[in-house]
Design a protein that fits this description.
Largest sheet: 7 strands, parallel
CATH class of the largest domain: Alpha Beta
CATH topology of the largest domain: Rossmann fold
Number of strands: 13
Number of helices: 14
Strand content: 15-25%
Low-confidence stretches: 372-378
Helix content: 25-40%
Number of domains: 2
Mean pLDDT: 93
CATH architecture of the largest domain: 3-Layer(aba) Sandwich
Structural class: alpha/beta
CATH superfamily of the largest domain: Glycogen Phosphorylase B
Distance between the termini: 28 Å
Strand order of the largest sheet: 3-2-1-4-5-6-7
């Protein structure tokens, strides 16, 4: 039988959760199948490119945006005819569905929904963008081979927003590189500005979704002697957050070093990890924090955090947009964290990349995992 590849499509490999998932999945599949594994990019760029294993082929369509890559993606599909094309991010999923139709629907098309689908809102431009993308999702998702939601919460919003039927959705958590996170526990943090300091860690794009403005408000309400705050990530709200820290009088204790390629090394040395998101489809960084054994505080936001923390058994849960509640939980968690280090690490292992990749192969891709005899597990 022709050894058709398993292919992943995403616009680029810049530093985001969905991009990290694609890399983790592709890397893990190398050890689960003798099929070629491809990552197809609208443009081969991004911080995670260097993390792709050499056995995975990068296919550069040479386009700046997913929408502009539709003809090139269709040509790739007609030429290569992969057994599966798995796409990520809703706008890229729509583009992949169009290209797949143009190419004659070769193999299976599996689209991953990475976030809760919210009712359109915001300013008129943002409202129109969300409205249009959801209309396109309703047209495209039911025609795909399968939709993967990364949590029950995400699956629920797909149904509630009438994008597809629940019977068309498979719920599979995100793959996390557990080994790397666990081994980082003995590593020194790569950030010289916090060397030797006790600190609280937060990670994510500097956007409204991640709620770092609320985290800064909560941090400003902590008492004297509080640990420093480190926020890893880059994004459009950097200047606003820096100005807020200055206004709160905590700028000297707040560090925003930008994107860090090895966040697990920072996590492993932290006194506490805080997820302050307003909504979160899954929460990769939450699992990465659990994998290092770090204590956790999270908002009880729409998405997976409550399930990941087993209803607050493994970490504090606080309401969204409440800095007083977040400050109180941080104070308590610094002294009396929920759950044991071992229990947190055990929970993280539920999402180890090899196990999740096998689930993708069997449940979403409908392929038999058959390791090649000349490949070795890592």
């Amino acid at each position: 039988m022709e050894n058709r590849p398993v292919s992943f499509f995403i616009p680029g490999l810049n530093g985001g959760g969905a991009q990290k998932v694609v890399v983790n999945l592709a890397n893990a599949l190398v050890d689960l199948t003798d099929r070629p594994v491809h990552i197809v990019l609208a443009r081969a760029a991004g911080e995670f490119l260097d993390e792709v294993r050499p056995e995975v082929e990068i296919v550069d369509l040479g386009k700046g945006r997913a929408s502009r890559a539709i003809p090139a993606l269709a040509r790739y599909l007609r030429r290569v005819r992969p057994a599966v094309l798995c796409s990520s991010l809703n706008y890229a999923n729509v583009c992949a569905a169009v290209a797949w139709q143009l190419a004659g629907r070769p193999g299976r098309l599996v689209v991953r929904e990475d976030n809760v689908v919210r009712e359109p809102g915001g300013d008129p431009r943002r409202f129109l963008q969300r409205f249009l993308i959801q209309r396109l999702m309703r047209a495209c998702y039911p025609r795909t081979s399968s939709v993967v939601a990364i949590s029950d919460a995400v699956a629920g919003t797909l149904v509630d927003r009438k994008i597809c039927l629940r019977s068309h959705v498979r719920v599979i958590g995100n793959p996390i590189a557990i080994t790397a996170a666990s081994e980082a526990c003995s590593s020194e943090t790569p950030l010289p500005e916090i060397k030797g300091k006790r600190y609280i860690c937060a990670i994510g794009r500097l956007t409204e979704q991640k709620g770092f403005d609320v985290l800064l408000e909560a941090y400003g309400r902590l008492g004297d002697g509080k640990p420093d705050l480190v926020i890893l990530g880059e994004g459009p709200l950097r200047a606003d957050l820096a100005a807020q820290a200055d206004r709160l009088g905590v700028a000297d204790q707040v560090h925003m070093p930008g994107f860090v390629s090895a966040p697990e090394k920072v996590l492993s040395s932290s006194a506490l990890f805080v997820l302050s998101s307003r909504w979160e489809g899954f929460g990769n960084v939450l699992v990465e924090a659990l994998a290092t054994g770090a204590p956790v505080v999270s908002t009880d936001c729409p998405g997976a955090p409550r399930a990941l923390l087993r209803d607050a058994e493994l970490g504090h849960l606080v309401p969204v947009n409440e800095p007083d509640g977040l400050a109180a939980a941080i104070t308590e968690a610094l002294h009396s964290p929920r759950g044991t280090r071992e229990a947190r690490q055990e929970r993280a292992r539920d999402f180890a990349a090899p196990s999740i990749a096998r689930e993708y192969m069997e449940v979403a891709f409908e392929l038999e995992p058959v390791p090649s005899p000349d490949r070795h597990n890592v």
